[in-house]
Protein backbone atom coordinates (compact mmCIF):
# COMPACT_ATOMS: atom_id res chain seq x y z
CA UNK A 1 0.00 0.00 0.00
CA UNK A 2 1.44 3.37 -0.98
CA UNK A 3 0.91 6.43 1.20
CA UNK A 4 -1.20 8.33 -1.34
CA UNK A 5 -3.87 5.65 -1.67
CA UNK A 6 -7.35 6.41 -0.34
CA UNK A 7 -7.78 3.82 2.41
CA UNK A 8 -11.45 3.63 3.35
CA UNK A 9 -14.35 1.45 4.36
CA UNK A 10 -17.49 1.03 2.29
CA UNK A 11 -20.94 0.76 3.86
CA UNK A 12 -23.82 -0.95 2.08
CA UNK A 13 -27.49 -0.82 2.98
CA UNK A 14 -29.45 -2.97 0.54
CA UNK A 15 -33.23 -2.55 0.68
CA UNK A 16 -35.89 -4.20 -1.44
CA UNK A 17 -35.55 -1.68 -4.27
CA UNK A 18 -32.67 0.54 -3.16
CA UNK A 19 -28.99 0.38 -2.37
CA UNK A 20 -27.43 3.03 -0.13
CA UNK A 21 -23.66 3.31 0.03
CA UNK A 22 -21.20 5.31 2.07
CA UNK A 23 -17.44 5.62 1.73
CA UNK A 24 -15.73 6.53 5.00
CA UNK A 25 -12.09 7.32 5.80
CA UNK A 26 -10.31 5.22 8.43
CA UNK A 27 -10.70 8.03 10.96
CA UNK A 28 -13.32 10.70 11.48
CA UNK A 29 -17.07 10.81 11.01
CA UNK A 30 -17.47 12.60 7.67
CA UNK A 31 -18.15 10.39 4.65
CA UNK A 32 -15.89 10.80 1.60
CA UNK A 33 -18.90 9.93 -0.55
CA UNK A 34 -22.50 8.79 -0.21
CA UNK A 35 -24.75 7.31 -2.83
CA UNK A 36 -28.21 5.99 -3.47
CA UNK A 37 -29.35 3.66 -6.22
CA UNK A 38 -33.13 3.98 -6.09
CA UNK A 39 -35.99 2.11 -7.78
CA UNK A 40 -33.60 -0.66 -8.78
CA UNK A 41 -35.09 -2.17 -11.93
CA UNK A 42 -35.87 -0.77 -15.37
CA UNK A 43 -36.36 2.79 -14.02
CA UNK A 44 -33.42 2.82 -11.61
CA UNK A 45 -31.66 6.08 -10.72
CA UNK A 46 -28.25 6.65 -9.18
CA UNK A 47 -27.07 9.71 -7.26
CA UNK A 48 -23.62 10.06 -5.70
CA UNK A 49 -22.27 12.94 -3.63
CA UNK A 50 -18.85 13.84 -2.30
CA UNK A 51 -17.97 15.11 1.18
CA UNK A 52 -19.09 18.65 0.29
CA UNK A 53 -22.45 17.45 -1.01
CA UNK A 54 -21.44 18.11 -4.62
CA UNK A 55 -22.57 15.53 -7.16
CA UNK A 56 -20.09 12.85 -8.22
CA UNK A 57 -20.83 11.95 -11.85
CA UNK A 58 -22.58 8.59 -11.94
CA UNK A 59 -21.35 6.48 -14.83
CA UNK A 60 -24.06 5.26 -17.15
CA UNK A 61 -24.56 1.65 -16.18
CA UNK A 62 -26.93 -1.16 -15.43
CA UNK A 63 -29.27 -0.59 -12.45
CA UNK A 64 -31.59 -3.46 -13.27
CA UNK A 65 -30.72 -5.52 -10.17
CA UNK A 66 -28.68 -5.19 -6.95
CA UNK A 67 -25.51 -6.81 -8.29
CA UNK A 68 -25.53 -4.60 -11.40
CA UNK A 69 -26.29 -1.49 -9.32
CA UNK A 70 -23.37 -2.24 -6.99
CA UNK A 71 -21.05 -2.67 -9.98
CA UNK A 72 -22.22 0.66 -11.43
CA UNK A 73 -21.74 2.42 -8.07
CA UNK A 74 -18.25 0.94 -7.64
CA UNK A 75 -17.23 1.94 -11.15
CA UNK A 76 -18.42 5.50 -10.49
CA UNK A 77 -16.55 5.65 -7.16
CA UNK A 78 -13.41 4.20 -8.74
CA UNK A 79 -13.48 6.94 -11.39
CA UNK A 80 -13.64 9.58 -8.62
CA UNK A 81 -11.18 7.81 -6.25
CA UNK A 82 -8.74 6.04 -8.57
CA UNK A 83 -6.47 5.04 -5.67
CA UNK A 84 -9.21 3.57 -3.54
CA UNK A 85 -7.92 0.90 -1.16
CA UNK A 86 -10.84 -0.73 0.66
CA UNK A 87 -10.03 -1.96 4.16
CA UNK A 88 -13.48 -3.48 4.79
CA UNK A 89 -17.09 -3.46 3.69
CA UNK A 90 -19.82 -3.03 6.33
CA UNK A 91 -23.36 -4.20 5.68
CA UNK A 92 -26.68 -3.39 7.25
CA UNK A 93 -28.45 -6.69 7.94
CA UNK A 94 -31.97 -6.49 9.26
CA UNK A 95 -31.96 -9.76 11.22
CA UNK A 96 -29.21 -11.18 13.36
CA UNK A 97 -31.43 -13.71 15.15
CA UNK A 98 -31.58 -14.20 18.90
CA UNK A 99 -27.87 -14.33 19.65
CA UNK A 100 -25.97 -11.63 17.74
CA UNK A 101 -25.68 -8.63 20.05
CA UNK A 102 -22.79 -7.05 18.12
CA UNK A 103 -21.51 -6.73 14.54
CA UNK A 104 -19.82 -9.85 13.19
CA UNK A 105 -17.20 -10.66 10.56
CA UNK A 106 -18.83 -12.46 7.64
CA UNK A 107 -17.80 -16.09 7.21
CA UNK A 108 -19.46 -18.85 5.17
CA UNK A 109 -20.93 -20.19 8.43
CA UNK A 110 -22.37 -16.79 9.35
CA UNK A 111 -23.92 -16.39 5.90
CA UNK A 112 -25.55 -19.78 6.28
CA UNK A 113 -26.86 -18.84 9.72
CA UNK A 114 -28.25 -15.50 8.49
CA UNK A 115 -29.98 -17.20 5.57
CA UNK A 116 -31.90 -19.25 8.16
CA UNK A 117 -33.41 -16.00 9.50
CA UNK A 118 -34.74 -14.99 6.06
CA UNK A 119 -38.21 -16.40 6.84
CA UNK A 120 -38.32 -14.00 9.83
CA UNK A 121 -37.72 -10.98 7.54
CA UNK A 122 -38.59 -12.15 4.02
CA UNK A 123 -38.79 -8.66 2.52
CA UNK A 124 -35.39 -7.50 3.75
CA UNK A 125 -33.00 -10.30 4.72
CA UNK A 126 -32.60 -11.84 1.22
CA UNK A 127 -31.63 -8.42 -0.21
CA UNK A 128 -29.17 -7.78 2.62
CA UNK A 129 -27.53 -11.15 2.00
CA UNK A 130 -27.34 -10.68 -1.75
CA UNK A 131 -25.62 -7.34 -1.05
CA UNK A 132 -23.01 -9.22 1.01
CA UNK A 133 -22.53 -11.83 -1.71
CA UNK A 134 -22.18 -9.16 -4.38
CA UNK A 135 -19.55 -7.32 -2.29
CA UNK A 136 -17.67 -10.57 -1.61
CA UNK A 137 -17.54 -11.22 -5.34
CA UNK A 138 -16.46 -7.65 -6.11
CA UNK A 139 -13.78 -7.55 -3.38
CA UNK A 140 -12.41 -11.01 -2.76
CA UNK A 141 -10.18 -10.96 0.30
CA UNK A 142 -11.61 -7.73 1.74
CA UNK A 143 -13.22 -8.35 5.15
CA UNK A 144 -17.00 -8.03 5.22
CA UNK A 145 -18.79 -7.05 8.43
CA UNK A 146 -22.49 -7.61 9.14
CA UNK A 147 -24.25 -5.04 11.36
CA UNK A 148 -27.64 -6.13 12.64
CA UNK A 149 -30.74 -4.01 13.23
CA UNK A 150 -31.74 -6.43 15.96
CA UNK A 151 -28.40 -6.44 17.84
CA UNK A 152 -28.99 -3.35 19.98
CA UNK A 153 -32.09 -4.94 21.50
CA UNK A 154 -30.63 -8.29 22.50
CA UNK A 155 -30.41 -7.39 26.17
CA UNK A 156 -34.16 -6.94 26.66
CA UNK A 157 -35.55 -8.32 29.90
CA UNK A 158 -37.45 -11.55 29.28
CA UNK A 159 -40.91 -9.95 29.58
CA UNK A 160 -40.01 -7.60 26.71
CA UNK A 161 -38.46 -10.40 24.62
CA UNK A 162 -41.39 -12.79 24.53
CA UNK A 163 -45.03 -13.17 23.58
CA UNK A 164 -47.51 -14.98 25.80
CA UNK A 165 -47.62 -17.98 23.47
CA UNK A 166 -46.76 -21.55 24.47
CA UNK A 167 -43.05 -21.58 25.37
CA UNK A 168 -42.03 -23.70 22.39
CA UNK A 169 -42.63 -20.76 20.05
CA UNK A 170 -40.12 -18.58 21.92
CA UNK A 171 -37.63 -21.44 21.70
CA UNK A 172 -38.22 -21.61 17.95
CA UNK A 173 -37.38 -17.93 17.57
CA UNK A 174 -40.82 -16.32 17.77
CA UNK A 175 -39.67 -13.38 19.91
CA UNK A 176 -39.76 -9.62 20.08
CA UNK A 177 -36.53 -8.79 18.28
CA UNK A 178 -36.90 -5.04 17.80
CA UNK A 179 -35.37 -3.18 14.85
CA UNK A 180 -33.81 0.21 13.92
CA UNK A 181 -30.96 -0.84 16.20
CA UNK A 182 -28.23 0.92 14.20
CA UNK A 183 -30.09 4.20 14.55
CA UNK A 184 -30.63 3.69 18.28
CA UNK A 185 -27.01 2.72 18.75
CA UNK A 186 -25.94 5.97 17.07
CA UNK A 187 -28.32 8.11 19.16
CA UNK A 188 -27.24 6.37 22.39
CA UNK A 189 -23.61 7.15 21.58
CA UNK A 190 -24.28 10.77 20.61
CA UNK A 191 -26.39 11.37 23.71
CA UNK A 192 -23.63 9.96 25.90
CA UNK A 193 -21.21 12.37 24.21
CA UNK A 194 -23.35 15.53 24.46
CA UNK A 195 -25.20 14.83 27.71
CA UNK A 196 -23.81 11.94 29.78
CA UNK A 197 -26.25 12.72 32.59
CA UNK A 198 -29.29 12.24 30.37
CA UNK A 199 -27.79 9.20 28.66
CA UNK A 200 -27.38 7.50 32.03
CA UNK A 201 -31.10 7.84 32.71
CA UNK A 202 -34.40 6.70 31.22
CA UNK A 203 -34.45 7.73 27.57
CA UNK A 204 -37.12 7.16 24.94
CA UNK A 205 -35.98 7.53 21.33
CA UNK A 206 -38.60 7.93 18.60
CA UNK A 207 -37.16 6.93 15.21
CA UNK A 208 -39.79 8.31 12.84
CA UNK A 209 -39.00 7.63 9.21
CA UNK A 210 -40.83 5.61 6.59
CA UNK A 211 -40.50 2.81 9.09
CA UNK A 212 -41.06 4.05 12.63
CA UNK A 213 -40.48 2.69 16.11
CA UNK A 214 -39.64 3.83 19.60
CA UNK A 215 -37.02 2.39 21.88
CA UNK A 216 -36.83 2.66 25.65
CA UNK A 217 -33.28 2.80 27.01
CA UNK A 218 -31.83 2.75 30.47
CA UNK A 219 -28.21 3.79 30.80
CA UNK A 220 -27.81 3.60 27.01
CA UNK A 221 -29.09 0.01 26.74
CA UNK A 222 -32.33 -0.97 25.04
CA UNK A 223 -35.01 -2.21 27.44
CA UNK A 224 -37.96 -2.38 25.05
CA UNK A 225 -38.98 -1.62 21.46
CA UNK A 226 -42.37 -1.06 19.85
CA UNK A 227 -41.27 -3.32 16.99
CA UNK A 228 -41.34 -7.00 17.82
CA UNK A 229 -41.07 -10.20 15.80
CA UNK A 230 -41.24 -8.15 12.62
CA UNK A 231 -40.94 -4.46 11.75
CA UNK A 232 -44.75 -4.31 11.52
CA UNK A 233 -45.70 -3.74 15.15
CA UNK A 234 -46.05 -0.55 17.17
CA UNK A 235 -46.39 2.82 15.49
CA UNK A 236 -48.31 3.56 12.32
CA UNK A 237 -45.78 3.96 9.49
CA UNK A 238 -45.62 5.06 5.87
CA UNK A 239 -47.25 1.88 4.55
CA UNK A 240 -47.48 -0.38 7.65
CA UNK A 241 -50.33 -0.27 10.17
CA UNK A 242 -48.39 -0.71 13.41
CA UNK A 243 -50.30 -2.30 16.28
CA UNK A 244 -53.20 -4.40 15.03
CA UNK A 245 -55.46 -6.94 16.69
CA UNK A 246 -54.39 -10.39 15.40
CA UNK A 247 -58.11 -11.13 15.20
CA UNK A 248 -58.26 -8.81 12.18
CA UNK A 249 -55.80 -11.05 10.36
CA UNK A 250 -57.79 -14.17 11.24
CA UNK A 251 -60.90 -12.46 9.91
CA UNK A 252 -59.15 -11.52 6.66
CA UNK A 253 -58.03 -15.11 6.17
CA UNK A 254 -61.27 -16.80 7.16
CA UNK A 255 -63.90 -14.42 5.84
CA UNK A 256 -62.19 -12.55 3.02
CA UNK A 257 -60.19 -15.54 1.85
CA UNK A 258 -56.93 -13.60 1.76
CA UNK A 259 -53.71 -15.57 1.38
CA UNK A 260 -50.57 -15.01 3.46
CA UNK A 261 -49.03 -13.23 0.47
CA UNK A 262 -52.00 -10.88 0.11
CA UNK A 263 -52.02 -10.09 3.83
CA UNK A 264 -48.28 -9.47 3.74
CA UNK A 265 -48.76 -7.02 0.89
CA UNK A 266 -51.59 -5.32 2.79
CA UNK A 267 -49.50 -4.97 5.94
CA UNK A 268 -46.16 -3.99 4.39
CA UNK A 269 -47.22 -1.92 1.38
CA UNK A 270 -50.80 -0.68 1.52
CA UNK A 271 -51.53 0.34 5.10
CA UNK A 272 -50.32 3.06 7.49
CA UNK A 273 -50.32 6.66 6.33
CA UNK A 274 -50.87 5.56 2.73
CA UNK A 275 -53.85 3.36 3.54
CA UNK A 276 -55.51 5.88 5.85
CA UNK A 277 -54.98 8.91 3.61
CA UNK A 278 -55.57 7.17 0.31
CA UNK A 279 -52.94 9.60 -0.93
CA UNK A 280 -49.36 9.00 0.11
CA UNK A 281 -46.98 7.38 2.57
CA UNK A 282 -44.96 10.61 2.64
CA UNK A 283 -45.53 12.84 5.68
CA UNK A 284 -44.51 15.96 3.78
CA UNK A 285 -47.21 15.35 1.20
CA UNK A 286 -49.83 14.67 3.85
CA UNK A 287 -48.95 17.86 5.73
CA UNK A 288 -49.40 19.81 2.51
CA UNK A 289 -52.51 17.96 1.28
CA UNK A 290 -55.27 19.65 3.27
CA UNK A 291 -57.76 16.78 2.83
CA UNK A 292 -59.76 15.32 5.70
CA UNK A 293 -58.32 11.86 5.07
CA UNK A 294 -54.74 13.20 5.19
CA UNK A 295 -55.52 15.04 8.44
CA UNK A 296 -56.99 11.86 9.95
CA UNK A 297 -53.95 9.83 8.91
CA UNK A 298 -51.69 12.34 10.69
CA UNK A 299 -53.99 12.36 13.73
CA UNK A 300 -53.77 8.56 13.95
CA UNK A 301 -49.96 8.65 13.59
CA UNK A 302 -49.71 11.14 16.47
CA UNK A 303 -52.24 9.37 18.71
CA UNK A 304 -50.56 5.98 18.25
CA UNK A 305 -47.18 7.52 19.05
CA UNK A 306 -48.52 9.14 22.22
CA UNK A 307 -49.98 5.86 23.46
CA UNK A 308 -46.71 4.05 22.81
CA UNK A 309 -44.79 6.80 24.63
CA UNK A 310 -46.95 6.22 27.69
CA UNK A 311 -46.39 2.49 27.44
CA UNK A 312 -42.63 2.91 27.07
CA UNK A 313 -42.44 5.26 30.06
CA UNK A 314 -44.24 2.57 32.07
CA UNK A 315 -41.66 -0.01 30.92
CA UNK A 316 -38.84 2.28 32.07
CA UNK A 317 -40.49 3.40 35.30
CA UNK A 318 -40.51 7.01 34.10
CA UNK A 319 -38.79 9.14 31.52
CA UNK A 320 -35.93 11.64 31.69
CA UNK A 321 -35.50 12.41 27.99
CA UNK A 322 -37.33 12.01 24.70
CA UNK A 323 -35.33 12.12 21.46
CA UNK A 324 -36.90 12.65 18.04
CA UNK A 325 -34.98 11.28 15.05
CA UNK A 326 -35.56 9.90 11.52
CA UNK A 327 -36.94 11.89 8.56
CA UNK A 328 -40.16 12.93 10.32
CA UNK A 329 -38.63 13.27 13.79
CA UNK A 330 -35.77 15.44 12.54
CA UNK A 331 -37.73 17.60 10.13
CA UNK A 332 -41.39 17.93 11.06
CA UNK A 333 -41.87 20.61 13.72
CA UNK A 334 -45.68 20.28 13.47
CA UNK A 335 -45.62 16.55 14.29
CA UNK A 336 -43.23 17.09 17.22
CA UNK A 337 -45.42 19.94 18.52
CA UNK A 338 -48.58 17.83 18.35
CA UNK A 339 -46.98 14.83 20.04
CA UNK A 340 -45.67 17.00 22.89
CA UNK A 341 -48.92 18.98 23.28
CA UNK A 342 -50.75 15.87 24.37
CA UNK A 343 -48.03 14.62 26.73
CA UNK A 344 -47.86 17.46 29.26
CA UNK A 345 -49.24 15.12 31.94
CA UNK A 346 -46.00 13.12 31.60
CA UNK A 347 -43.81 16.23 31.84
CA UNK A 348 -43.19 16.37 28.09
CA UNK A 349 -43.43 19.82 26.49
CA UNK A 350 -41.88 21.65 23.53
CA UNK A 351 -40.88 25.30 23.35
CA UNK A 352 -42.55 26.64 20.20
CA UNK A 353 -39.60 28.75 18.99
CA UNK A 354 -36.95 26.09 19.68
CA UNK A 355 -39.11 23.45 18.02
CA UNK A 356 -39.74 25.58 14.92
CA UNK A 357 -35.97 26.21 14.68
CA UNK A 358 -35.24 22.45 14.93
CA UNK A 359 -32.96 23.23 17.90
CA UNK A 360 -31.18 20.28 19.48
CA UNK A 361 -33.02 20.87 22.82
CA UNK A 362 -36.66 21.82 22.29
CA UNK A 363 -38.07 21.40 25.81
CA UNK A 364 -38.64 24.64 27.80
CA UNK A 365 -36.10 25.71 30.49
CA UNK A 366 -36.54 23.62 33.62
CA UNK A 367 -38.89 21.07 32.03
CA UNK A 368 -39.20 17.71 33.78
CA UNK A 369 -38.35 15.82 30.59
CA UNK A 370 -35.60 16.91 28.19
CA UNK A 371 -36.89 16.77 24.61
CA UNK A 372 -34.23 16.64 21.91
CA UNK A 373 -34.00 16.54 18.12
CA UNK A 374 -31.01 14.54 16.89
CA UNK A 375 -30.16 13.52 13.34
CA UNK A 376 -29.40 9.83 13.13
CA UNK A 377 -26.53 8.29 11.14
CA UNK A 378 -26.87 4.55 10.60
CA UNK A 379 -24.12 4.54 7.95
CA UNK A 380 -21.58 5.88 10.44
CA UNK A 381 -22.43 3.10 12.91
CA UNK A 382 -21.75 0.55 10.15
CA UNK A 383 -18.51 2.30 9.15
CA UNK A 384 -17.27 2.37 12.76
CA UNK A 385 -18.06 -1.33 13.17
CA UNK A 386 -16.22 -2.17 9.94
CA UNK A 387 -13.21 -0.10 11.02
CA UNK A 388 -13.19 -1.66 14.47
CA UNK A 389 -13.06 -5.20 13.09
CA UNK A 390 -10.05 -4.66 10.80
P1 LIG B 1 -36.46 5.90 5.71
O1 LIG B 1 -37.14 5.24 6.85
O2 LIG B 1 -36.90 5.39 4.38
O3 LIG B 1 -34.95 6.04 5.87
P2 LIG B 1 -36.56 8.73 6.33
O4 LIG B 1 -35.95 8.59 7.69
O5 LIG B 1 -35.82 9.50 5.30
O6 LIG B 1 -37.05 7.37 5.70
O7 LIG B 1 -37.99 9.45 6.54
C1 LIG B 1 -38.89 9.62 5.50
C2 LIG B 1 -40.10 10.37 6.04
O8 LIG B 1 -39.68 11.65 6.55
C3 LIG B 1 -41.14 10.66 4.96
O9 LIG B 1 -42.44 10.45 5.49
C4 LIG B 1 -40.93 12.13 4.70
O10 LIG B 1 -42.08 12.79 4.25
C5 LIG B 1 -40.57 12.62 6.09
N1 LIG B 1 -39.98 13.95 6.04
C6 LIG B 1 -38.79 14.33 5.55
N2 LIG B 1 -38.64 15.67 5.62
C7 LIG B 1 -39.79 16.16 6.17
C8 LIG B 1 -40.28 17.46 6.49
N3 LIG B 1 -39.55 18.55 6.28
N4 LIG B 1 -41.51 17.55 7.04
C9 LIG B 1 -42.25 16.46 7.27
N5 LIG B 1 -41.86 15.21 6.98
C10 LIG B 1 -40.65 15.06 6.44
TrEMBL record:
<keyword id="KW-0963">Cytoplasm</keyword>
<feature type="active site" description="Proton donor/acceptor">
    <location>
        <position position="149"/>
    </location>
</feature>
<comment type="pathway">
    <text>Metabolic intermediate biosynthesis; acetyl-CoA biosynthesis; acetyl-CoA from acetate: step 1/2.</text>
</comment>
<feature type="site" description="Transition state stabilizer">
    <location>
        <position position="180"/>
    </location>
</feature>
<dbReference type="GO" id="GO:0005829">
    <property type="term" value="C:cytosol"/>
</dbReference>
<dbReference type="GO" id="GO:0006085">
    <property type="term" value="P:acetyl-CoA biosynthetic process"/>
</dbReference>
<keyword id="KW-0460">Magnesium</keyword>
<dbReference type="GO" id="GO:0006083">
    <property type="term" value="P:acetate metabolic process"/>
</dbReference>
<feature type="binding site">
    <location>
        <position position="13"/>
    </location>
    <ligand>
        <name>Mg(2+)</name>
    </ligand>
</feature>
<dbReference type="GO" id="GO:0005524">
    <property type="term" value="F:ATP binding"/>
</dbReference>
<feature type="binding site">
    <location>
        <position position="20"/>
    </location>
    <ligand>
        <name>ATP</name>
    </ligand>
</feature>
<keyword id="KW-0067">ATP-binding</keyword>
<protein>
    <recommendedName>
        <fullName>Acetate kinase</fullName>
        <ecNumber>2.7.2.1</ecNumber>
    </recommendedName>
</protein>
<feature type="binding site">
    <location>
        <begin position="282"/>
        <end position="284"/>
    </location>
    <ligand>
        <name>ATP</name>
    </ligand>
</feature>
<dbReference type="InterPro" id="IPR023865">
    <property type="entry name" value="Aliphatic_acid_kinase_CS"/>
</dbReference>
<keyword id="KW-0547">Nucleotide-binding</keyword>
<feature type="binding site">
    <location>
        <begin position="207"/>
        <end position="211"/>
    </location>
    <ligand>
        <name>ATP</name>
    </ligand>
</feature>
<comment type="subunit">
    <text>Homodimer.</text>
</comment>
<comment type="function">
    <text>Catalyzes the formation of acetyl phosphate from acetate and ATP. Can also catalyze the reverse reaction.</text>
</comment>
<keyword id="KW-0808">Transferase</keyword>
<dbReference type="GO" id="GO:0008776">
    <property type="term" value="F:acetate kinase activity"/>
</dbReference>
<keyword id="KW-0418">Kinase</keyword>
<dbReference type="GO" id="GO:0000287">
    <property type="term" value="F:magnesium ion binding"/>
</dbReference>
<comment type="similarity">
    <text>Belongs to the acetokinase family.</text>
</comment>
<feature type="binding site">
    <location>
        <position position="92"/>
    </location>
    <ligand>
        <name>substrate</name>
    </ligand>
</feature>
<dbReference type="InterPro" id="IPR004372">
    <property type="entry name" value="Ac/propionate_kinase"/>
</dbReference>
<feature type="binding site">
    <location>
        <position position="378"/>
    </location>
    <ligand>
        <name>Mg(2+)</name>
    </ligand>
</feature>
<keyword id="KW-0479">Metal-binding</keyword>
<feature type="binding site">
    <location>
        <begin position="327"/>
        <end position="331"/>
    </location>
    <ligand>
        <name>ATP</name>
    </ligand>
</feature>
<dbReference type="InterPro" id="IPR043129">
    <property type="entry name" value="ATPase_NBD"/>
</dbReference>
<feature type="site" description="Transition state stabilizer">
    <location>
        <position position="240"/>
    </location>
</feature>
<dbReference type="InterPro" id="IPR000890">
    <property type="entry name" value="Aliphatic_acid_kin_short-chain"/>
</dbReference>
<dbReference type="Pfam" id="PF00871">
    <property type="entry name" value="Acetate_kinase"/>
</dbReference>
